[in-house]
Structure to design on (152 residues):
């Protein structure tokens, strides 16, 4: 049994192919994650999942639309799990870091490279460099705002 999940090969995006290898003698399943651009193959043992479970689920999906939705969900879960396995400097920035960096870049007029939004370590460096000035401006502008004086 094999399945293929990947992305459009007509784009510059790398194609990741997932094959399922089932050993009939050992009744165990191994997922193979293959990066076709760099010839990386990662074996992912699925020892707690009987092979017939995946077959049954696939058969139940029926039409192409349901299979595509299943593949999309599997891709999202796999991507999330892969991110968890990366070294911390290779992980993408958090949503909070990204929002903060955008606010800093707009307020200070400093450019934020694509790498800032791609890698957490580059983002951390950007924030360490620019956050103190951003905070100082925010503090000074709050002190110079006119205050509403209450009536007697």
């Amino acid at each position: 049994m094999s399945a293929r999940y990947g992305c459009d090969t007509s784009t510059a995006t790398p194609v990741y192919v997932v094959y399922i290898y089932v050993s009939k003698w050992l009744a165990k399943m191994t997922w193979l994650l293959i990066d076709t651009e760099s010839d990386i193959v990662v074996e992912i043992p699925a020892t707690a999942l009987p092979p017939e479970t995946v077959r049954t689920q696939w058969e139940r999906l029926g039409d192409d639309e349901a299979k595509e939705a299943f593949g999309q969900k599997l891709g999202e879960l796999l991507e999330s799990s892969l991110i968890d396995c990366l070294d911390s400097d290779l992980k993408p920035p958090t949503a909070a870091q990204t929002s903060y960096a955008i606010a800093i870049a707009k307020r200070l007029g400093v450019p934020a490279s694509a790498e800032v939004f791609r890698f957490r370590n580059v983002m951390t460096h950007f924030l360490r460099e620019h956050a103190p000035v951003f905070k100082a401006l925010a503090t000074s502008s709050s002190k110079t705002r006119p205050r509403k004086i209450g009536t007697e």
